[in-house]
Predict the 3D structure of the following.
Amino acid sequence: MRLFRYAAAALIALAACSKPAVEAPKEEKAAPAEPKVDALRLYVLDCGHIDVSDMGIFDRGGAYDGQKRSLVDTCYLVRHPSGDLLWDAGLPDAIHDAPDGVVNPPFSLTMPKTLRGQLERLGVPPDYVEYFSISHSHFDHLGNANLFKNSTFVANEEEREHMFRAEARADAEAFAAYSDLEASKKVTFSDSYDMFGDGKVIIISMPGHTPGHSVLLVNLEHSGPILLTGDLYHLAPARANRTVPSFNTSAEETLASMDKFEELAKASGARVIIQHEAADFENLPRAPAYLD
Ligand SMILES: [Zn+2]
């Protein structure tokens, strides 16, 4: 998707230009890693804000043409007694250094907090995160991917092929945002992957937005099951209206994935969280608070 490449290129340029001459004080102080947890926890992290001046591309049917929307960009730290998983890596932390953010029509991107800072505050800095996975390989989910090069990259095999295909590689600036993952330890899957082998954290392929787009099911003891949508839906009305963005790789696969998702949501009774929906973000506890 060309728009995403432009945005990614602008971000890389920003990262290159914004290095301060003198090392700026760290936004938030690093803490030693918190010892392992004894029960499953889900932390919701603020990974940036995306103001869209024209939502047209988000509905192939044209229902959003000319409309403005504000999207949140969220990341999730899943802490399990057997290890920590980061789900999605948001916008690049470099945007935090630009006071007015980065404008790249139709997107205006801002980053009030860095992902690194939020993880450090939780006592789980990027180097301590054992597993990294993504809903899909667009720039707003891979912004800080290289921070997790020492993690095991858990990826849908088609998505991994898609992000390392020749065409993606040829787009050098966009590719640079996540290129370090290529050498990372990896686990790949096709239909689904039970992260810790106990049915509590399951990545499930729901392609269509991209070839290997996936969602995450987290079965919490007290909060119950939670389903993170990735970008199967971008906004709450998109779920009701089965809205398919014009830039999805397959409309047919998207609609089939929506059917699969809704069956799973119904069967599990899960609370559904649309990752870009501000209303869903507003209703979640903010780190350091968490769901368990
Ligand atoms: Zn997205």
In short: The first helix runs from residue 2 to 17. The pocket of zinc ion is lined by residues 138, 140-141, 231, 276 (CB under 6 Å). The longest strand covers residues 41-52.
